[in-house]
Specification:
The complex is a heterodimer of chains A (299) and B (417). With 299 residues, chain A is mainly alpha-helical. In chain A, 73% of the residues lie in helices and 0% in strands. Chain B contains 19 helices and 14 strands. Classes of the chains: A mainly alpha (299), B alpha/beta (417). At the A-B interface, α13 of A face α3, α4, α18 and α19 of B.
């Protein structure tokens, strides 16, 4: 017992124990500053009368009152909900369907899988530009069909304020459902064959097997797919810019394009910061309860 | 301390080297977004003129978003205390920066060269803050032009050009009967607003335009004249082909060129498209002022930021003087397709549309019918302009009635002020 704690101290052991913390902390500090620091800054700016330059006089909720009195903001919010719910639902439905079909041990599966997955490799700018040409009534599909003899064929959603938002859904689903398929396919492959065999022995129909056994097992895959697609939907900025430019008028404006317009085109940093904060709140309101309930179940 | 000295020594040497290399006529760093075609060529004229005087020119072109990217960069540079010498910045944007205390004035140069006597008063007041020049205009663009295809007009039997919107409607109806699209238009908010302001000028006249779109007078904004302007805009909507949403302005110009539409309402940068395609004004295309006997003014300018150091201040003064020199105004505007901001520059080498523009400009100054453009950021702050653009583009792309539009416009303007 003669050894004092001092003599026990060895720099090598201390370093060994602290090394993970030392290595991780710069990164932690950076992300703390650049992510959470700027979120806090943006939130603060939304409470100031900032215009062309940021100013730091606290003025309360005036920017939020202004934001919620702007008709264009309501259009953006409505569009976000229409777009993200349809986009997530359709992408997942197509993804599951394709995954189940591919899971039937088809020939040339590798090739088909790659074909469906490839749109994901394109940027939304490319997707948006290509679909803009295809959906333009004077250039694309409508003209093709009319020239083929269907004189009354009309597909003018892109230039119609009421339907333009659905063209965004079409393009985004085309791009992302292959990705959803890949996620679900990986999930399906991890389902134990023994369970399926047992179900078959018990006389369960394929439909019943999928709906009552396989899909519930895939629950965690649903979670990750929803989160990935949801953040794609909320971030959707480039697709809107390339496909519709927010138009006709501002009929396909989204919160992200709204924020860009106010911050960079109109010198209204305060309103833009308020809209950014609202976007953050929306995401938190949707994702946190979902994560909470899902993680508690799987834990 | 010795470490500090070691670290700073190379910096000091570098700084000395730079200042040694710079010549007697000063250094300027110019932030702009003229990066394409005729615009890049025009700014190149300024650079070579400045260098010919022995100065050092540091070019900072920032392309993207019609200047949005450059404005973002500018904000960062001003916050960091390192602003460029001169920035391509126009209209009330100049006042916004001046209020932040971010600008230098060049009143000394302006006084000795007597800018007040050669610039249109409306333009001069935009260039000044607190009675002193803080910016220098390089050109004048006219916004209230109609570009027409003479062959289509002849085919439909139209001989006289419309001088009121009612006459325009009659002409357009005649074109429709002949199966010709009367109006080529690009459905982007700023283009909708361009047409809108030309309509307001034609329906209400210059006095009304100034009250409604410059002074933002609520009475004018809610008046019957404003309702009538929206009615006329609704009529124009009927003369546009169905594929207009999102179309770029130069594609609309191409439609007039190819004979797919008879008219386009657009500023005189459209002329550059015609000329680049080898078309001759007066023969292959016509330039006709939109109704109203006014002149809607758009002007690019360089604004002088608060730089320090003799070298930079000197450069700033030289640049200001150079921008306003008659020679530069001529070469620059021949390259860009606009007309000189100075009204005393002879226009012998310019085309007939530019000459007409200059003539009408002088008449408009005389009759006090010269108005700054709302759509092109010459008249009102960007926040209020944004509300105009939102409302006008929504009106143009929906079946909103004019009374509702007027009500919503006046609410939106009140909100943004």
């Amino acid at each position: 017992m003669a050894r004092s704690p001092i003599s026990q101290f060895s720099p090598a052991r201390w370093l060994e124990r602290r090394l993970p913390v030392i290595v991780v902390s710069p990164l932690f500090a950076l992300s703390l500053f650049f992510v959470y620091g700027f979120i806090a800054w943006t939130a603060y700016i939304s409470f100031t009368p900032s215009g062309v330059m940021p100013v730091y006089d606290f003025q309360g909720l005036a920017q939020y009152e202004r934001l919620w009195a702007t008709p264009r903001w309501y259009v953006a919010i409505k569009n976000l909900f229409i777009f993200s719910s349809l986009f997530i639902a359709i992408s997942m439905a197509i993804g599951i369907l394709l995954a189940i079909l591919l899971d039937q041990r088809v020939r040339a599966e590798g090739l088909i899988r790659t074909v469906y997955l490839y749109p994901m490799a394109l940027s939304f700018i490319v997707t948006g530009t290509v679909w803009k040409w295809m959906l333009n009534p004077g250039l694309g599909l409508q003209r093709l069909m009319r020239e083929a003899g269907f004189e009354n064929f009309t597909f003018d959603w892109l230039v119609n304020s009421h339907y333009a938002i659905y063209t965004l859904v079409i393009a985004a689903v085309w791009q992302s459902s292959g990705y959803a398929m890949a996620l679900f396919l990986a999930g399906l492959r991890s389902v134990d064959d023994e369970i399926l065999k047992a179900a078959a022995v018990d006389g369960s129909s394929p439909w019943k097997t999928y709906t009552s056994i396989v899909l519930p097992i895939l629950r965690p895959v649903f979670l990750s797919t929803v989160i990935i697609l949801a953040h794609l939907a909320i971030k959707s900025f480039d697709l809107v810019v390339a496909l519709t430019g927010g138009g006709p008028g501002y009929a396909t404006d989204m919160p992200a394009t709204f924020m860009y317009a106010f911050a960079f085109q109109r010198s209204e940093l305060g309103v833009a910061a308020a809209s950014a904060t609202m976007m953050l709140m929306t995401i938190i309101a949707i994702i946190v309860p979902y994560l909470y309930s899902e993680l508690r179940k799987t834990a | 301390m010795s470490l500090m000295r070691k670290m700073f020594a190379p910096v000091t040497i570098a700084a000395l080297a730079v200042s040694g290399a710079a010549r007697a006529e000063g250094t300027v760093e110019v932030l702009h977004w003229w990066t394409s075609g005729g615009e890049a060529k025009a700014v190149g004229e300024l650079k070579s003129a400045f260098e010919a005087q022995g100065g050092t020119w540091i070019d900072s072109p920032i392309a993207g978003g019609g200047g949005d990217a450059a404005m973002t960069a500018l904000r960062a540079r001003v916050v960091a205390g390192n602003p460029p010498t001169a920035v391509q910045l126009k209209g009330p944007g100049i006042q916004e920066w001046a209020e932040q205390g971010a600008l230098n004035d060049v009143q000394g140069v302006a006084e000795s060269e007597n800018w007040d006597s050669v610039l249109p008063p409306v333009l001069a007041s935009i260039m000044k803050y607190d009675g002193k020049y803080v910016a220098a205009p390089v050109n004048i663009h006219r916004v209230d032009w109609m570009w027409a295809n003479p062959k289509l007009l002849a085919d439909a039997g139209i001989e006289t050009m419309p001088t009121t919107w009612d006459e325009f409607n009659a002409v357009a109806d005649k074109l429709m009967e002949a199966g010709i699209t009367p109006l080529a238009h690009g459905g982007q908010p700023w283009q909708d607003a361009t047409v809108f302001e030309d309509v307001v000028l034609g329906i209400g006249g210059a006095e009304f335009y100034r009250k409604a779109l410059v002074e933002l007078d609520q009475e004018a904004l809610t008046s019957d004249t404003m309702v009538a302007s929206f009615d006329q805009l609704r009529k124009l909507r009927g003369y546009v082909d169905p594929n207009f949403p999102g179309r770029d302005w130069n594609l609309a110009t191409a439609m007039v060129m190819r004979g797919e539409a008879a008219f386009q309402i657009m500023g005189d940068w459209a002329k550059g498209e015609f000329l680049a395609a080898g078309k001759v004004p007066g023969e292959d295309f016509l330039c006709i002022p939109t109704p109203g006997n006014g002149f809607v003014l758009n002007s690019d300018s360089f604004t002088f930021f608060k730089v320090s150091g003799e070298e930079n201040l000197k450069g700033q003064q030289v640049l200001a003087s150079l921008i306003m020199s008659p020679d530069f105004q001529k070469t620059f505007n021949l390259a860009k397709g606009s007309i000189p901001a100075r009204t005393d520059v002879p226009l012998d080498e310019f085309d007939m549309c530019a000459k007409k523009s200059h003539e009408d400009l002088l008449a408009a100054i005389e009759n006090d019918t010269l108005v700054p453009s709302m759509a092109h950021e010459m008249a009102i702050p960007r926040s209020v302009r944004g509300e105009f653009l939102d409302l006008v583009t929504e009106f143009f792309n929906s079946d909103m009635d004019s009374a509702t539009a007027v009500k919503r416009l006046s609410d939106a303007v009140a909100r943004a002020q």
